[in-house]
Design brief:
By secondary structure, the protein is of the alpha/beta class. The chain has two domains: 160 residues, NAD(P)-binding Rossmann-like Domain (Rossmann fold, 3-Layer(aba) Sandwich); 94 residues, ProC C-terminal domain-like (ProC C-terminal domain-like fold, Orthogonal Bundle). 49% of the residues lie in helices and 14% in strands. The chain has an eight-stranded mixed sheet with strand order 3-2-1-4-5-6-7-8, sandwiched between helices. Helix 6 crosses helix 11 and helix 7 crosses helix 8. It is elongated and about 70 Å long. The two termini are 39 Å apart. Bound molecules: NADP nicotinamide-adenine-dinucleotide phosphate. NADP nicotinamide-adenine-dinucleotide phosphate (NAP) binds next to helix 1.
Length: 271
């Protein structure tokens, strides 16, 4: 049976999901997008052959999507979510990817009988290598859960949690994680420059090293610790660097502090 999706917000994450759905074979005829900007809407129609509406009110009466997907910025949600309450039905699941916006928040905006799933994806979704963690409220049926799983598997892998609170840690680890890895590339490149390498070479070496090591990790059955030990000869050059990075105030202390700060911010956003 053809699934119907109404997507609110087609920016970086929204478009990554949209292109993943189309690639996975979800028919474009079943996908509608609420896009207020007419030029952007025209581009979406031309690129993906989807329907677009300028607002939720412009969606014809009687249209009852299987999924309403919220992919607008969290700070826009107060304006956006309540306008979709008209789609509320047991057969319609609201799926939000907005950081920090809780099930309780959506129950207030849409009514406490709404079927709600919260998801936290990450930006490698754009290359179908995202990882998403999801949490469902009790009104989500097993079929709706399976279908949500399918929607997010279109852009990578999916995990579920029974604890909504875990999503703050997820946001801090995998939600923001790609940015931490990009920063690692930047700081490695800068360290290479300070070690005397030409700028362009240092940039390229850092980028290829991180992406190549990521691919090696993905393809290997070994743990990251084993892979690290495999490239560390006793008393060699890598061992010297790791002694610095693994010192008491090294990378672990810094990353623990960074993830804790992000988790605290996610809790604050949840109110
Ligand atoms: N980026 C990440 O790493 C990441 C990771 C996990 C989760 N998320 C979540 O994903 C959500 C979207 O983030 P993003 O990075 O994709 O943001 P984004 O690129 O800014 O996309 C948001 C889109 O929503 C559109 N929009 C604004 N008001 C709207 C309305 N009333 N109706 C329909 N569309 C509207 C925006 O259009 P205009 O630009 O024209 O305003 C924009 O295209 C956020 O809630 C964020 O927390 C993001």
């Amino acid at each position: 049976m053809e699934r119907t999706v109404l997507l609110a917000g087609c920016g970086k994450m929204g478009e990554a999901m949209l292109s993943g759905w189309i690639e996975r074979g979800i028919p474009a005829s079943g996908i509608s997008i609420v896009e207020p900007n007419e030029q952007t809407a025209a581009n979406l129609r031309a690129t993906y052959a989807v329907s677009t509406y300028s607002s939720p009110d412009a969606v014809p009466e009687g249209v009852s999507p299987d999924f309403v997907v919220f992919a607008v910025k969290p700070q826009m949600m107060d304006l956006v979510a309540p306008a979709y309450a008209r789609f509320k039905a047991p057969a319609t699941a609201f799926l939000s990817i907005a950081a920090g916006k809780t099930v309780d928040y959506f129950e207030k905006a849409l009514g406490d009988d709404a079927v709600i799933v919260r998801a936290m994806p990450n930006t490698p979704a754009a290359v179908r290598r995202g990882i998403t963690v999801m949490f469902a409220n009790p009104r989500v049926s097993p079929d709706q859960k399976a279908a949500c799983d399918d929607l997010l598997q279109a852009v990578g892998s999916v995990e579920w949690t029974d604890s909504e609170g875990a999503l703050d840690g997820v946001t801090a680890l995998s939600g923001g994680g790609p940015a931490y890895v990009f920063l690692l590339v930047e700081v490695m490149a800068e360290a290479g420059k300070q070690a005397g390498l030409p700028d362009a070479l240092a940039d390229r070496l850092a980028r290829e090293t991180v992406s190549g090591a990521g691919e090696l990790l993905r393809q290997s059955d070994d743990s990251p610790a084993t892979l690290r030990i495999n490239v560390t000869s006793p008393a060699g050059t890598t061992a010297e660097a790791l002694a610095v990075l693994m010192a008491e105030n090294g990378m672990q202390a810094l990353m623990t502090k960074a993830v804790a700060a992000a988790k605290k911010r996610s809790e604050e956003l949840a109110g």
